[in-house]
Amino acid sequence: MYQLKMAIKSLSKNLLSSLFLLISLCIGFVSFVFIASHVSQEMSYDRDFPQAENIYRIATNIYTSGELKLTKPLCERDMGNELKRNSPEVLESGFFFKPGNLEFKINEQIFKDENVLHASSGILNVFSIEFIYGSRSNALKRPYTVILSESYARKYFGDENPVGKTIFKYPGASYEIEGVYKDLPQKLHFKANMLLSFHDNMRLPPPAMEAWGESAFYTYLKFQANASINGFNKKMNQLALSKKRNLVEGGDIQHTYYLQALTDIHLKSHLKDELAINTRADYLYVLMAISLLILIAIGFNYIHFSHTKAIKDANNWGLRKVVGAKGRSLISQSLLESFLLHLLSLVLAIFICKALSPLAYSNYGLTLDFSEAPLLFWIILLCMILLSTLINGIITGILINRYNSLELLKLKFNPLTSSFSIQKLFVVSQFVIVIAILICIMGINKQLEFLQEKNMGMNLSNKIAVTVPKNMRKSSSRFKNFETFEQELLRHPNVESITQCDKIPGELLAFNFTFKEKGKDKNAKASLMVADVNYLKNFGISLIEGSNFPKNANSINSGCLINEACLSDLGYNHPKDAIGKVLQLKDESMTEGFELEIKGICSNFNFQSLREFPGPTILINWTQEIMWGYYIVKYKTPNIKEEIAHIKKQVETTFPNYPFQYVSLKSFYNRQFIKEFQLIKMLYAFVYLAIVISVINLFTMAWIGSLVRTKEIGVRKINGAKTHEIILMLNKGFVKWVCIAFLIACPVAYYAMNKWLQNFAYKTELSWWIFALAGIIAMGIALLTVSWQSWRAAKRNPVESLRYE
């Protein structure tokens, strides 16, 4: 009890220092709690399903002439069923399939929802989905049936049981509701507000209906507990080979299969056509490492502040030693003060975190939910607090206890004069953190600017994509006066041009067609795009050789355009050599095939992503009779408010009961960098924290330095030393420490940035000025911080300085 009273008295006596210690600790705990909570939640994705550790997804590698061209999280429709039939270790199998249209009508409400999937009945057993209404054993086994999530059913039907009611899906199918399932966990690698049946007697793409046709199914397997999956990949490949033996893709094309653990998908799978944008595990590791470094830096500050407070109260410590206080009691009091400050700062940090939670989510994508935090989070947090309390308390006590009573009474010690000290190590470590984060921020910024400014082979500026019905004939009776629709769009003075297509930049192109030149044996894979005659001009894509699509041609004789990557796969070095050649195309199911004459060669363009080089792409103009889902509208001036109103009116007039939606092409395309943008915003926040911590630390050390060199400063002043000479003397050591930190931080940051840049096909250079600027900023911070304290010490009256001696 006596020690507790003394600790409280010491903290209240040095109120300002205690307040700084409290603020410093709060900063560290707030950053650590936010990051640790976010990381633990990200790492807990897909773990709430029963037996989640036994569930796997099948992924496919596609090779052309022995070279890996594509990896996707999809396989053929019957792969899962066959594995379940032939493998006793597989308990359940099921698949998802993406719908072609996502526009729906419930009662009089028309909406579009991207979180809707076709699903086999087996998927309900794989994920043990629980039902509120209807029967899980009978669900999704009949054509044109649908089951809804609990929240979705409540949204559109209130508390009523919706089983037996219908949902209309554009362009012309009615689905009967046969069940309502409990809302799935939030932390999943997919979202499913509704699940539609997938049946042979439905109007679905013919290639997808083939048992061993198109690789378009997200297939999941649930294994028996403790089942060994060693060698299962080989088993899958042998099965596929035996089933697809008659579906000859061509000797140059090969599919291989492997399993992905369900619990690894969110952090480790970044394949084309994922069901959602997953989180990069390396980004989480970066954030966690930085939050730990911030916490360590806070510990440095704690020790400095405590040390400073002890120096300020050196006479009291000296007297206590004179009257017989043992070293253990000094350390005990220091440890008790540390415990009280840590406890109070933790309580404050939790309240601050709760208050800042909405801001952290909206600005940085950081989620904080203590109610859902796993046990591991609380164990780590508790261990970090106890460790910080012990280390900071004990080290502070040891630093003071090492001086004898005479040194403490007469302040005859200088903790900064030795060639090496813990204080110097702390300062160097803090500035290593600051400089490294600054280099990473500038490096990431430079790469993102490089990608956004890079010539991607197509111009997305001043363009919006307007959604229209898909896979419907333009002559459909559902449309009103379609023949005037395009003319009415162009009538607005701000509309420069329009073009039709089936995909917009940033979406995944269907990479499921094998092509070869007629009369030759070499096969390759290509993406297929539907585009009209205005496409190249509207997007600024260069036509290298040949001609564009014929203006008045029908879909049969309009031929095709190919890009340079496709030209290379055909084996031609000169574009003119390929003009007039005929391509034979077949889909993966080998049920659909057609021939197209090459009309022209266009330049490569990065349609899907700037993380990789453009792949082979074939453009076809089949827009004469069919709607393909998008109209691209190019406008003249940035102010498009009136233009949007005009387009909306035309869409609603021509396509009654169809939801009007549009996106900016540039914004949509840049969604691929959303994780990088969030990361850089968080790094900015961390560097601000690191700078504040370093400034406080340096200021404390400068104060200690001037305090213990009081006599030396006074003597130098009496002997004629100028103010700037005193400032230079006091600053010299700090400059040296920042230089050492710079030399350590540069190779660390260079290695980290090089590893990160490997994720991109197009990379910027890590220019020398990035490292130099980070060093200059760090040096400026250090000099501005210590110079103020040095100036105060240098201006002090030497008589007053020598009074301490």
UniProtKB/TrEMBL annotation:
Transmembrane recorded as keyword: yes
Identification of the protein by name: ABC transporter permease
Annotated GO MF terms: transmembrane transporter activity
Keyword Chloroplast assigned: no
Pfam families with a match to the protein in the record: FtsX, MacB_PCD
Residue ranges crossing the lipid bilayer per the database entry: 283-303, 335-357, 377-401, 422-444, 682-708, 734-753, 768-788
Top-level taxon of origin: Bacteria
Location of the MacB-like periplasmic core domain: 19-238
Membrane topology designation: Multi-pass membrane protein
A GO term from the CC aspect: plasma membrane
InterPro entries per record: ABC3_permease_C, MacB_PCD, Macrolide_Exporter_MacB
PANTHER family per record: ABC-TYPE MACROLIDE FAMILY EXPORT SYSTEM PERMEASE COMPONENT 2, MEMBRANE COMPONENT OF TRANSPORTER-RELATED
Major subcellular location class: membrane
Secretion signal, residue range per the UniProt entry: none
Domain ABC3 transporter permease C-terminal: residue ranges: 289-391, 685-798
Keywords of this entry: Cell membrane, Membrane, Transmembrane, Transmembrane helix
Subcellular location: Cell membrane
